[in-house]
Write a structure and sequence with these properties.
It is an enzyme of class 2 (transferase). Pfam families: Methyltransf_4. Keywords: Methyltransferase, S-adenosyl-L-methionine, Transferase, tRNA processing. Pathway: tRNA modification; N(7)-methylguanine-tRNA biosynthesis. The protein is of the alpha/beta class. The chain has a single domain (2-200), classed as Rossmann fold (3-Layer(aba) Sandwich), CATH 3.40.50.150. The chain is 36% helix and 23% strand. The protein has helices at residues 10-13, 19-23, 40-48, 61-73, 86-93, 123-132, 146-159, 181-189, and strands spanning 2-4, 30-34, 53-58, 79-83, 99-105, 133-143, 161-163, 194-200. Strands 1-4-3-2-5-6-8-7 form an eight-stranded mixed sheet, sandwiched between helices. The longest helix is centred in the last third of the chain and has 14 residues, at 146-159. The protein is globular.
Length: 201
């Protein structure tokens, strides 16, 4: 399914939807992906973990529409694709401590200094992500931009996250990690990906 934050669809308009009604038992482990892109991660993750419910938010309607169509074609009832701005949608859709995991893969680095305020991982968003996670919940962050990674690890740890790899350090890919569409290209070419696996205390 796909709903836009501007549509009249109830699930995008209502405050704190009934996720058990939407996903059934899978809602017991509710997860969020911010920036689904071409959907490589969301589609593979939903298939690999049918007992988990994944809500994927993508701001570009064209991409969201394609991913939603693929999810329907592949019969993935545990994946919901929403089109909109995660900064606006996430606090409307999920209560505090509701999410088991949040996946943020290759967010736009917004290179120019005057655009830094548009970056996803800023102080306000870091605090929001921490609040949405359940105790022990995982923030799975990946980027191909070293400077962005270095800034993100400082900001996220300062917000209260515990770094699985140790303070200021980056993680290796776990054996069961599912790559995004973009990450598959990097794995093929050997380009480095900086990973953070952070937990809510």
């Amino acid at each position: 399914m796909i709903f836009s934050s501007e549509d009249e669809a109830p699930i995008a308009r209502d405050l704190l939807p009934d996720w058990h009604a939407a996903f059934g038992d899978a809602a017991g482990r509710l997860e969020l992906e911010i920036g689904a892109g071409h959907g490589g991660f969301a589609l593979a993750y939903a298939r690999a973990f049918p007992d988990r419910a994944l809500v994927a938010i993508e701001q570009r309607k064209k991409f969201a529409t394609v991913v939603a169509a693929k999810a329907a074609a592949r019969e993935l009832p545990n994946l919901l694709v929403l089109c909109g701005d995660a900064r606006i949608l996430a606090p409307r859709l999920f209560g505090a401590g509701r999410l088991a995991a949040i996946h943020v893969h290759f967010p736009d680095p917004w290179w120019k200094r005057r655009h830094h305020r548009r970056r996803l991982v800023d102080d306000r968003m870091s605090t929001l992500l921490l609040g949405l996670l359940a105790p022990g919940g995982l923030l799975d962050f990946r980027t191909d931009v070293e400077r962005y990674a270095e800034e993100a690890v400082v900001r996220l740890e300062a917000a209260g996250f515990r770094n699985e790899a140790g303070a200021g350090r980056f993680s290796d890919a776990p054996p069961d990690e599912i790559p995004s569409t973009r990450e598959k290209r990097y794995l093929a070419t050997g380009q480095r990906v900086w990973r953070l696996r952070l937990r809510k205390r």
